[in-house]
Write a structure and sequence with these properties.
Number of strands: 13
Strand order of the largest sheet: 10-7-6-5-12
Number of helices: 18
Strand content: 5-15%
Largest sheet: 5 strands, antiparallel
Distance between the termini: 82 Å
Length: 595
């Protein structure tokens, strides 16, 4: 009998194993596709991780704009990358001067990206991806807990659990955020985990250890992200509801005290530290002084147009707004995703009218479903309050991810109830196939085409036949060049640069074709890569080449000419000095001799 029971339990976990495998595969795919720093707040969150790993201390105000975040995820990630030899972050982060976060532009690149970020990953690039893959694990935990919670609620109807887990695992935005250096996935996992003892209590297990677990897991969520504090409200509702339903009001103080004690013991030290350092347990006033709100949403004054815009932004960024909310699906996809809500609501109504016996009795009854609704309500309350305080910045669907398990269970339940009898799984199957297809399609067709990687692999220098070691201003090395005559009368020259130090200014490259007597015959002035890779964004170790065409006189075929190459400031013409190599008037002279 035990062997039969074990086999059945193993079989029931097969759907979860398949869904988690798909989620982890997609998470790694997204993490590889998204360039470094191109997820909301990833530079700041990794800054926290890097600071902890290199300084063995928590970041202070002003170090990174995410310094105020609860530290548990960052500590775990710092431990995971602590064995690496980490270079300074400024060698890897290059803010794009035309980014949409700086000026109004259609350029989705918030940062300028070099081929150094591509596999095989090294140094900071490797550290970022390790921190991303750690986050994928937290996302997978959220998927697993969603499935297990749904099985607890509907033990006889596995399709509800499959649908709920799939709604989390195949949500493109949840995959995207789980594949970034962020603490949202960790909070979602901790939030779902906290629902476990809460559900135990609602289903009638009123032992003290359940309330201890409720308090401890609430504190864990708070340590991942301070917005997890909304779970205190959920815990309070659970304690009050249990006393009311059981009629044991004399135990209200005991249950509440044990829950609060665990929250205080585990999360209290963080708030005590903030109070001692900043005079504020939440460090909120210090945070606002460094990052003042730009605008706000007075929700009591919203008209219908503004309210719909508000909800539309939340809807779109809950399912798929990538990059720094700059990359979107085609509009018809969002319109199709809107249909999930009324269809699931219709299914819940149909199921209720048929009676629970026709589509599965809820373990714990309506109070168990009410627990899901309350958990959604506390998250919505925080999100609305945040938007009221910080305006458009706070209107992001990822702030709703803590409730993703509860919402997905209810949506799956609604789809399961749409059709009768043996057709009940069909709507769930169709919905999951659509979401999975969308999740697979997104990286290659929405994310990857939006970004470009500049520069060359260092190995390209090994193949050059005309090598150099000329150094400009101790910062830029001319490592080699190639040239050819392009009929009818053009000289094409490729110059290969290697960065030794970060240049202080945005320099323009000049290339002068000189005849045998040294007189200028033609010239080409250009900013590197058509201005897309300014020299002040070059970092030590970068390799890139620039190409120019100049008018080429026939006389240069008989008597070799030369090319003068250098850098100057466009503002005043001041040239970058040549500190090593042949030079003439702060330019390197290259002979156009036969290769």
């Amino acid at each position: 009998m035990n062997q039969i029971k074990l086999t059945i339990n193993q079989f029931r976990l097969w759907p979860l194993a398949v869904i988690i495998t798909l989620f982890v595969t997609l998470g790694v795919y997204y993490s590889i596709t998204v360039p470094l720093w191109e997820a909301p707040d990833e530079p700041g969150h990794f800054g926290n991780v890097w600071y902890i790993a290199t300084h063995q201390a928590l970041p202070q105000p002003g170090t990174f704009y995410t310094w105020h975040q609860a530290p548990l995820y960052h500590i775990i990630a710092a431990t995971a990358i602590g064995w690496l030899n980490l270079s300074p972050l400024n060698e890897w982060q290059r803010f794009n001067p035309t980014a949409p976060t700086v000026v109004r532009s259609t350029d989705p690149n918030v940062f300028v990206h070099s081929v150094r970020e591509l596999p095989p990953y090294k140094d900071i690039a490797l550290a970022v991806h390790i921190a991303r893959w750690l986050n994928v694990i937290f996302g997978a935990i959220t998927v697993a807990l969603t499935y297990l919670l749904a099985r607890r609620l509907f033990p006889e109807h596995g399709w509800v659990a499959i649908g709920a887990a799939g709604l989390v695992a195949f949500n493109p935005q949840f995959i995207f955020m789980s594949a970034a250096v962020q603490n949202d996935a960790a909070l979602s996992a901790a939030f779902a985990l906290t629902l476990w003892p809460a559900l135990n209590i609602v289903q009638g297990d009123n032992r003290i250890r359940q309330f201890l677990g409720l308090g401890a897991l609430t504190a864990l969520a708070i340590l991942f992200k301070q917005s997890g504090i909304v779970l205190i409200g959920l815990a309070g509702v659970v304690v009050l509801g249990t006393a009311w339903r059981s009629g044991q009001w004399q135990k209200l103080f005991i249950w509440g005290s044990w829950t609060a004690l665990m929250v205080g013991l585990i999360a209290g030290p963080m708030y005590l530290r903030n109070t001692l350092l900043y005079g504020d347990p939440f460090a909120y006033e210090v945070y606002k002084s460094l990052h003042p709100p730009t605008d706000s949403y007075p929700l009591n004054q919203l008209d219908m147009t503004t309210l719909m815009l508000f909800l539309t932004r939340l809807h779109e960024s809950f399912w798929g707004k990538f990059g720094w909310l700059t990359l979107a699906f085609p509009s018809f996809i969002y319109q199709g995703l809107w249909m999930i809500y009324p269809l699931s609501g219709l299914g819940l109504i149909i199921g209720y009218r048929r009676g629970q016996s026709s589509w599965g009795k809820v373990e714990g009854g309506l109070p168990a479903l009410a627990l899901l609704l309350v958990s959604m309500a506390v998250v919505w309350t925080f999100t609305l309050r945040y938007a009221m305080s910080f305006g458009a910045f706070g209107v992001q669907g990822r702030y709703l991810f803590p409730m993703i398990s509860a919402q997905s269970i209810l949506i799956s339940l609604g789809f399961y109830a749409l059709l009768p009898g043996r057709w009940r799984p069909l709507p769930i199957i169709i919905l999951l196939l659509i979401l999975l297809s969308l999740a697979i399609w997104t990286p290659a067709h929405v994310i990857a085409p939006a970004y470009q990687y500049l520069g060359d692999s260092p190995q390209v220098l090994d193949k050059l036949s005309l090598k150099r070691t000329d150094i400009f201003g101790e910062a830029i090395e001319l490592a080699g060049y190639e040239w050819q005559v392009v009929p009818p009368n053009k000289l094409q020259i490729a110059l290969y640069w290697r960065t030794r130090q970060t240049p202080l200014n945005d320099y323009t490259i000049f290339i002068h074709l000189l005849d045998e007597s040294g007189h200028r015959y033609s010239q080409n002035d250009q900013r590197p890569l058509n201005g897309n890779f300014p020299t002040q964004l070059w970092r030590p170790g970068d390799v890139l080449h620039t190409t120019a065409r100049l008018t080429f006189p026939p006389s240069c075929l008989a008597k070799p000419c030369s090319v003068a190459v250098g850098f100057y400031l466009l503002q005043n013409g001041e040239r970058l000095p040549v500190t090593q190599g042949e030079n003439q008037d702060n330019a390197v002279i290259l002979k156009l001799e036969n290769q």
